[in-house]
Amino acid sequence: MHTKPVKIYKSTISCVMYVLLFSAGIAFCIWVAISNFNNDAPSWIMVLALGGMAVACVNQMIYYIRCRHEKIVITEQLLTISQCVKQTKSGDWAPVKNVKLQWRDINHIKAQWERPTSKSIRKNVLVSAGKKDVYLIDPDIYDVFFLEKKLQKYQRQYGSTNRR
Fold first, then answer.
1. How far apart are CA 2 and CA 75, in angstroms?
2. Are residues 108 and 156 in contact, defined by beta-carbon separation less than 8 angstroms?
3. Which pick of 31, 63, 86, 105 has the fewest CB atoms within 10 Å?
4. 39: β partners
5. How far apart, in whole angstroms, are the C-alpha atoms of residue 125 and residue 147?
6. Within a 13 Å sphere around the CA of 162, how many CA atoms are in the beta-carbon half?
7. Contact, 96 vs 80, CB < 8 A?
8. How far, in Å, CA of 57 to CA of 152, rounded?
9. What is the 3-state secondary structure (H, E, C) of the chain?
10. CA within 13 Å, CB half, 25
């Protein structure tokens, strides 16, 4: 049985890029606040607004720093996801770690647009396996545009060769 990884999607590089991007946003907010401060009411309102934007940037940075060791590992037999959520019987989503799915047990891989919120509009990747298991992968930290297509390619390649 060959278990050497075929492909590994790691989140470390993406996380570093996001942290740098949000750090630049925070630096910009601080620069604008300092350079335009006149100690009057509009200046204080501007400082509060920019402070709120900086706090939002810090919150997003913390989220991506927590995700820095996540990965998806592809082998000829398994799809291994270090961090995702699984749909419960009640329809809610519960976090799960180190999910190992055999390619032959995966029924379908598809992307679904996330509900538009104030934070983002993006596609999540849904993986259905077995009789009723559904897993959701947040692709932002792996490959926001092409993760669905890449996983479908591996499913076609390895799922058909590993059928019982």
1. 8
2. no
3. 31
4. none
5. 8
6. 19
7. no
8. 33
9. CCCCCCEEEECHHHHHHHHHHHHHHHHHHHHHHHHCCCCCHHHHHHHHHHHHHHHHHHHHHHHHHHCCCCEEEECCCEEEEEEEEEECCCCCEEEEEEEEEEHHHEEEEEEEECCCCCCCCCEEEEEEECCCEEEEECHHHCCCCCHHHHHHHHHHHHHCCCCC
10. 18
Distance CA 43, CA 37 (A): 5
- CA–CA separation, 9 and 20 (whole Å): 20
Checking phi first, is residue 98 left (phi over 0); if not, alpha (psi -120 to 50) or beta? left
Q: What pLDDT digit, counting tens, does each position of 122-146 carry?
A: 678 889 998 889 998 876 655 656 7
| Distance from C-alpha of 162 to C-alpha of 106, rounded to nearest angstrom | 11
pTM of full prediction above 0.70: no
Note the pLDDT of residue 35: 84
If phi > 0 it is left, if psi is from -120 to 50 it is alpha, else beta; for residue 73 that is beta
